[in-house]
Amino acid sequence: MNPQDLLKLAVTVAEEAAALIVERRRGTITVADTKSTITDVVTAVDRESEELIRARVLQARPDDSFLGEEGDDVVGTSGVRWVVDPIDGTVNYLYDHPTYAVSIAVEVDGTTVAGVVVDAPKGEVFTATLGGGAFLDGKPIQASNCSELPQALVGTGFGYDPVRRQVQAEVVAHLIAKIRDIRRIGVGAIDLCYVACGRLDAVYERGLNPWDYGAGALIASEAGARVGGLHGEPVSPEMSIAAAPELFDTFHDLLAEADPLRA
Ligand code: IPD
Ligand code: CA
Ligand code: CA
Q1: Which residue(s) pair with 25 in the sheet?
Q2: Would you call 55 exposed, middle or buried from its count of C-beta atoms within 10 A (0-12, 13-18, 19+)?
Q3: I need a labelling partner for 260 at 20 to 30 A (CA). Which of 137, 204, 219, 232 fits?
Q4: Which GO BP terms apply (predicted)?
Q5: Overall average pLDDT of the 160-178 stretch
Q6: CATH code at 114?
């Protein structure tokens, strides 16, 4: 249960899945199904990637639990759980926008101890272990030193539910005049990794799931970013915020002011 050993397996499997999805992207990608709404799509490759990850992980560690976005949960006995998004950024993938990722977090007794996010088309590998720092392609990374809202480049995303999206757009309208700019990259896990390496100063999103933020939240916090929800809550599907340490409080307050219950 050494986090470094768990990370090693996570990286091997994530890289194999990333190679698979890039290879499949050379062919025709079609929507296999829709999920929560008509815009919430899944392709056959999302499922194939998750099946590959599940098979590799459970082959190596048959007593572990597994939570993937697309398949049934597996409940094991070891106390270790793998939390997996087999393609984060499926809409980018469908349209061949070259940013999409495989995200794997490993929890021990409910605490994330290792995480990897592979930006599949770029081949960038973001990793972290609890207490062990964060890395991009093996080199240590750090969140930015941004401390002022007008200098803050902020990432966010929109959920698939149209009512939630409308509100999320209103929150962006509240922020946009006070910050440097907004980026909607389309990959929640990459948003968090970009805060980790200073390519963004802050990110926030309501409605992310554990497979979206599990690995990225650890990577961001190990890179020195502050990570949390609103009003001192931990990150959850309710709200995930990650920001440069000097920026977090001011950014949090602006977001909370936008609408604490609906942002
Ligand atoms: C989505 C992406 C997107 C975020 C959505 C997620 P998916 O994940 O991370 O950036 O805004 O909330 O659902 O569906 O591409 O795995
Ligand atoms: Ca996702
Ligand atoms: Ca996904």
Answers
A1: none
A2: exposed
A3: 219
A4: inositol metabolic process; signal transduction
A5: 92
A6: 3.30.540.10
